[in-house]
What we know:
Number of strands: 10
Mean pLDDT: 90
CATH superfamily of the largest domain: Glutamyl-tRNA reductase, N-terminal domain
Structural class: alpha/beta
Shape: elongated
Amino acid sequence: MSLIAFGINHRTAPVELREQVAITGERITAALRELAALPSVTEAAILSTCNRTELYCGLQDDQVEALCEWLAHFHALDPAQIRPHLYSFPNADAVRHLLRVAGGLDSMILGEPQILGQMKQAYQNASDAGTLDAALERLFQHTFAVAKQIRTDTAIGESPVSIAFAAVSLARQIFSNFEQHTALLIGAGDTIELTARHLHDQHLGRLIIANRTPEHAHQLAAQFNGYGISLAEIPAHLAEADIIITATGSRTPILTGAMMKPALKLRKHRPVFMVDIAVPRDIEPAVATFEDVYLYTVDDLQEVIHENLQSRQEAARQAEEIIDVQVERFMAWLRAQDAVSSIRSFRRHAEQQRDEVLARAQQMLANGRDPAEVTAYLAQTLTNKLCHIPSVQIRQAAETGDAALLQAALRLYNLSKP
């Protein structure tokens, strides 16, 4: 069996394609079970975020193309459409990739912490769906431990750099004084919470949080002296919002051009700054063509993000050194698993021979034979049985000049060369 990390991310594909292959919400369980049911797949997990959709699998063979075809089929896409944007990492490279992703080293924002929570959710989804086996189970636990070590032993997470931070920084280029402005945040997940925190720290005037579940919106907004609304109430508040930031798991746009037009008319040419962090996108792309609208997607935040990364570069190098060591530790464990079945077979064979000789010895004692004679019989017969096959194999290796097997026998039995 081999391990594979396979997928598409912000480096290999634009947001338009990433949103087409995203697997979120209620679809994730069905996707996991379909994937795990493929003939070549022994276990599976799926990580899908705004920046990546990745499949982590155990494979019985090298049928990576089957993963491409499954991903395309699941989304009703032509495999040729996504194939140029895909990557795959086998075995040790797959382990390294997971550790780098969880440590924030493969993120658009170097060292961003949200990805670890998303990976933990991916593990929980796979566990709930029953698609994990020993190798991936162990790999995820190892990954979480290494990610914690990276956070503890390096400064990778000390600088305030995140998509949320980048969005707020970009908003400041348009609105220098947040105290006079209103922000509408759509969603209630980690990114929206972090965005709300950054805006609150910048002394935002008013905060509105909209969510499919109004109770969640109210609870989150209350932490920052804001108020929550339902998604249905958004049109009534659009004209108030100078800043709109969205990050939901919706499969269809939350904000459409038809909703924005009357709001913009009421605003009377006051600019509105919009960031769509979601994949698939929450805001119809056509909204970007409207006058007085500044609409950005996650891909547009790259420049802002790169300006805040300098302090994390040395920490990233230290993290890579930690990962080098931890990849080899996991691979050593994985290689050891390959020997487990051989060890069990060897022990069963030895135990069978022991039981046969012991049964004969017990019968001899029951028949009144001298215990010393029975003990000698037991020792000699068991020794002969255990040594017979290795002795035959070593003799044949000597006759055929198989030096490698002779050296292996010496190492296996910890013998000095005669």
